[in-house]
Design brief:
Elements: H1 2-18, E1 27-34, E2 37-40, E3 46-48, H2 49-53, E4 58-64, H3 69-85, E5 90-96, H4 101-110, E6 116-119, H5 131-138, E7 149-153, E8 164-172, H6 178-189, H7 212-222
Parallel strand pairs: 4-5, 5-6
Antiparallel strand pairs: 1-8, 2-3, 2-6, 4-7, 7-8
Helix pairs in contact: 1-7
Length: about 220
């Protein structure tokens, strides 16, 4: 009986491990995305998104929870894009959700994130109260926590005044598919397509992977 239980745990863990990623495609969607003014997690200064985007060609806003494994997967991808394309008018800004400033700052340090990051919420019970949650609902993201969630802004098309920045944008309801996203970024920046071999990323969206570690722990404790 013990052997069967151990085998069940192993198989269940293997399924969860293979279902960790939450890749999602770039989609052009109607979304009334509003301007915001949030505090930096590093020094507390406020960042106005409209001003941040000024004079740039493309801005990626990535919402994430520091404790979520899917953010751990996307963080190096976002950093690579930032390092590679910031000289061409591309920028990235992170929006921290559902974790403290201290925990988020430690996460950024461990992931060697150098792009700007602000905080929208610090507690998990704020999940259904954030603009992040409302945007995900409107764009069809059915995940529980929605980390990461990405939206791309083209500054030249943004509203110059008022609360609303744009009513249409490219969004990714999950992790970036790196090869597709890089093609998109290069196109928007007016750069020629790159000829390089990259492994094709799986495009299937998995179960709620932010909960995977908890489910594995619960099963282990039961047995």
């Amino acid at each position: 009986m013990k052997t069967i239980l151990l085998l069940t745990i192993f198989l269940f863990g293997s399924v969860l491990a293979s279902a960790q990623h939450e890749y999602a495609p770039l989609q052009h969607q109607e979304i009334e995305y509003k301007n915001w003014n949030y505090k930096s997690v590093r020094d507390g200064t406020k960042t106005d998104l409209r001003e941040f985007a000024r004079n740039k060609k493309l801005v990626m806003v990535v919402y994430f929870a520091a404790w979520c494994p899917n953010w751990k997967y996307e963080a190096p991808v976002a950093q690579r894009f930032y390092d590679k394309y910031k000289q061409y008018g591309f920028d990235v800004i992170g929006v921290s959700e559902y974790d403290t400033i201290d925990a988020t700052r430690a996460n950024l340090d461990s992931n060697k994130i150098t792009f700007a990051v602000v905080s929208e919420s610090e507690a998990r019970d704020a999940k259904q109260k954030t603009p992040h949650y409302q945007y995900r609902q409107k764009t069809g993201d059915t995940r529980g926590w929605g980390s990461p969630w990405n939206i791309f802004l083209e500054p030249k098309t943004l509203e110059k005044n008022g609360d609303t920045l744009t009513k249409k944008a490219f969004v990714v309801n999950g992790e970036l598919i790196e090869i597709d996203t890089e093609k998109f970024i290069r196109q928007k920046l007016g750069l020629p397509a790159e000829e390089k071999k990259m492994a094709s990323a799986a495009k299937e969206k998995s179960v709620e992977a932010c909960e995977a570690d908890k489910k594995t722990q619960l099963l282990t404790n039961r047995n």
